[in-house]
Amino acid sequence: MTTRWLTPEEQRAWRAYIAAAHLLEDALDRQLQQDAGMPHLYYSILANLSDEPDHRLRMTDLAERTKITRSRLTYAVTRLEKDGLIRRENCNWDKRSSFAALTDEGMAVLERTAPGHVETVRAFLFDHLTKEQVGQLEEIFTEVTRALEADETRPSADEVPWRRRSSSSPCSGDASE
Amino acid sequence: MTTRWLTPEEQRAWRAYIAAAHLLEDALDRQLQQDAGMPHLYYSILANLSDEPDHRLRMTDLAERTKITRSRLTYAVTRLEKDGLIRRENCNWDKRSSFAALTDEGMAVLERTAPGHVETVRAFLFDHLTKEQVGQLEEIFTEVTRALEADETRPSADEVPWRRRSSSSPCSGDASE
DNA sequence: GGGGCTTGGTTCAAGTTTGAAACAAACCTA
DNA sequence: TAGGTTTGTTTCAAACTTGAACCAAGCCCC
Question: Which domains does chain B have, with CATH numbers?
Answer without folding.
Answer: 22-154 (1.10.10.10)
